[in-house]
Amino acid sequence: MPVLMITVEPARAMRVEFAKWAVRQTPKVRTCSPSAFAVPPGLFTHMPEALLIGSTVDGHPYRSPEEDAALAAASQWRTAVPGEPLPEVPDAAYAPDAVQLPGPEHRPAPAEAAPSEGDGAAITCDVCSRPFTTARGRDTHRRQAHPEAD
């Protein structure tokens, strides 16, 4: 069973401090590239957060739990409650370059279907004469029911 490791690439200013911390661990935390370390998951949860600030963890920027809590507290979003209408989304939530899609009254009419498709026109299988309403349905049937005919 492979041992899972968390790849941590510390911020440039913290690499020396991170390396000092890494070699003090038992077993030592190894490097996995010139600028990244392979940290066991059990050790990752106990490492000093100061070493993680500004680092990349498994390819993602590190965000501290305190930062996430502060963002959640500052958020103006409300949680939906079952049975109640969803809260309104403020216009500020949308990017300034968001494009408004046209309403149904401004959408172009759908293209007319080909006479052989839709309108109940029967398209028949040339092997067993079974009727189909679309050429796609007939082609699927032919591939599955009559593979020898291909």
TrEMBL record:
- Compositional bias ranges of the Low complexity kind: 110-122
Which residues lie within the region annotated Disordered? 96-122
Enumerate the spans annotated as C2H2-type domain.
Answer: 123-150
Q: What is this protein called?
A: C2H2-type domain-containing protein
**Highest lineage ranks of the organism?**
Bacteria, Bacillati, Actinomycetota, Actinomycetes, Kitasatosporales
